[in-house]
Amino acid sequence: MSKQLTKLILPTPIEDVISTDSSISVSIKRDELNHPLVQGNKWRKLKNNLKAYHEGSYEQMISFGGVFSNHVYALAAATTELHIPCTLFLRGYTLDEENPTVQFLRSCNVDIQLLDHTSYREKDSPVFLDHLNEKYPNVYIIPEGGTNAAGILGAEELGLEIIEQYTGYLPDYICVSAGTGGTAAGIIKAFYDTDVKVLVFSSLKGNFLKSDISRLSGSDNFTLMTDYHFNGYAKFNEELISFINQFKSQNGISLEPIYTGKMMYGIRDLLRKNYFAAGSKVLAIHTGGLQGIKGYNYRYAEKFGEIK
Q1: Whole-angstrom Cα distance, residue 308 to residue 249?
Q2: pLDDT tens digits, residue range 93-105?
Q3: Which end of the chain has fewer CB atoms within 10 angstroms, the N or the C?
Q4: Closest to 258 (Cα-Cα) out of 178, 143, 145
């Protein structure tokens, strides 16, 4: 059994993108290029979990997510290539078989189980996890989004990779999007002993991620940006979709509307508001998730416009 994915590209490149302020350089860490299916931060958070699976006496993997989840998509791709039996618990009462993510999961032949919303909220409880371990002996359980100690370590290693790519200086700002906060926590840990300011762009409405990320990273040395969620997780409008298409036209880089699109929109807005001092160097991390474009176009293109 292979223990490593093929087609991995590491380190992923850093490229300049067009800035609305010529005195400020904006670059992007193209981590979506690390793997065609297990993209970006999903690979970073899964790699140490896959290593732990192979080092233990486990017989299968289990994880959780929504029916459009980047995490379950990436995990299905990884476990299929590595011949690891996988069960995915998806939130919902029924499955839409036309959903592109569901179709991909079917093509991977993973075991799909549905949890109603009440049961899904209990998925991290000791009672629920004990039941899983009884029903699925010798199972390796990965939490939703891949956010556990192994996942955070993988994100920290991404940050260390960035540090190695810079010679003689570091960027003034690192920008990263957040859903569960695991990737942001790892990046914060990597840059803890530097002068780099970490800006975390929340894709969720509210400020609760701040305490989650502080707990996961063991640090308050970051700024949570809460003005660019577009009214909540998986919420969009025509302006955001237009920006994503314009960004691709100008830079040749695809963004998705859940995380990276909102982050890059936020960076552009901060540039216009003179948030960054003249001469600043800003680095954004592209966390992948481009399979989400198919899901968006399937559900929302008629309402907000197609993502090209």
Answers
A1: 9
A2: 999 999 999 999 9
A3: N
A4: 178
Residue in the structure block whose two tokens are 């010679």: 167
Residue 178, amino acid: A
Q: Rounded to a whole number, what is the distance in angstroms from the first to the last CA of the chain? A: 38
CA distances from 228 to 39, 206, 254 (A): 23, 11, 18
Residue 288 has a pLDDT of: 98
Please state the pTM of the whole predicted model.
0.96
pLDDT at 22: 86
CA atoms within 13 A on the CB side of 145: 14
Determine the Cα–Cα distance for residues 162 and 173; give it in Å rounded to an integer. 12
E strand or H helix that includes residue 285: strand 281-285
Instruction: Delineate the domains of the chain, giving CATH numbers in brackets.
Output: 14-39+149-304 (3.40.50.1100), 42-146 (3.40.50.1100)
